[in-house]
Design a protein that fits this description.
With about 325 residues, this protein is α/β, with parallel strands linked by helices. The protein contains 11 helices and 9 strands. It has a 9-stranded mixed sheet with strand order 1-2-3-5-4-6-7-8-9, with helices on both faces.
Length: about 325
């Protein structure tokens, strides 16, 4: 069933989420501290049965210089052509990690260098991860949505979004990859992370997000009972005195706030039967986005989004902005 506004209403909707005081200084300081922490990018080839792709195990410095894992998948040398490769940095959905080396082969098969970033502290749900989260925890609902939620300094998504920006920094140091042609992308949590990466590293070449999570959070909390948003609802049902505090922390990572700072050409998609990420929250970020943008709408899909159809449309979008 439809979970939210009609499509005409969605095109008119604008989010009420406002920028928290000092948000730009907060993120500028966070990134400056992460970059000042140093650390090396390590790349190690991985043996796989694949014949048209090669895979490398990458470790790069993320939040506070902490090591973050990733897979780097490349077309086999004989299939690359001349010149450095365009790059797609992809972020993973909630509960997942970078998975296995032999998974997620589309983007490298299409000719891109594909960096798939691991998700700190996640990766024991639908795909496995290899990066711990060392941040402050405190009382929380199971999951990561309320981890460190009493301060922007300790909140989980401060660390994850910094990792995402540093992943872009990392690929720009690697031989054979074009530092001027780096796009960021993701689905659900990965989409919300990609919006943040495009805000924090605004000279990326393109942004592609499918049913992005963590956008227009106050509205999402009011209209969906689905996790992960409902983790916050359950937390506030117990910590009643923290409502204003928590909402202020969430505003520092809200996709609407981040979208205002993005400048790269962007493709969004929303599904009108999505009960996990209500489509109005996606449109809230889309309408706030600060660069050229397009939106795909899937009227009869839920949180699975557009599936292969959206993958192919995203591929065409990326080729326009990374190859033409």
């Amino acid at each position: 069933m439809r979970t939210d506004m009609s499509e005409p209403e969605l095109w008119e909707y604008r989010s009420a989420v406002e920028d928290p005081d000092g948000v730009d200084a907060f993120w500028a300081r966070t990134l400056a501290e992460a970059r000042a922490a140093g650390g090396e990018v390590a790349v190690r080839p991985v043996e796989t049965p694949l014949r048209t792709l090669e895979v490398h195990d990458v470790t790069f410095p993320g939040f506070a210089g902490e090591p973050v894992r990733a897979w780097l998948r490349l077309p086999a040398p004989a299939l690359r052509g001349g010149g450095p490769l365009p790059v797609l940095v992809e972020y993973v959905g909630y509960g997942g990690g970078r998975g296995a080396a032999e998974e997620s082969l589309l983007w490298a098969s299409a000719g891109f260098a594909h960096l798939q970033m691991d998700t700190r502290g996640q990766g024991s749900g639908w795909s496995r991860g290899d990066t711990p989260d060392t941040g402050t925890n405190g009382p929380q609902v199971p999951g990561v949505m309320t981890r460190g939620i009493t301060s922007p300094e300790t909140y989980y998504y401060r660390r994850l979004f910094t990792d995402a920006a540093r992943a872009v920094d990392a690929v720009r140091t690697l031989d054979g990859l074009d530092p001027e042609r780096v796009a960021v992308a993701g689905t659900s949590q990965g989409g919300g992370t990609a919006i943040a990466a495009a805000a924090l590293v605004p000279d990326v070449a393109a942004l592609a997000v499918e049913v992005p999570f963590l956008c227009d959070v106050p509205r999402a909390l009011a209209i969906t009972d689905a996790d992960p948003f409902h983790e916050v609802t359950r937390y506030l049902a117990t910590h009643r005195e923290q409502v204003d505090l928590v909402m202020g922390v969430l505003a520092h990572v809200d996709g609407v706030v981040m979208a205002r700072r993005g400048r790269a050409p962007a493709r969004f998609s929303a599904a009108l039967m999505d009960a996990v990420v209500p489509p109005s929250t996606v449109f809230g970020a889309f309408h706030a986005y600060g660069g050229p943008k397009e939106m795909a709408v899937y009227p009869f899909n839920g949180h699975e989004g557009g599936g292969t159809a959206e993958d192919l449309a995203t591929l065409a979008f990326l080729r326009r902005h990374l190859e033409d």
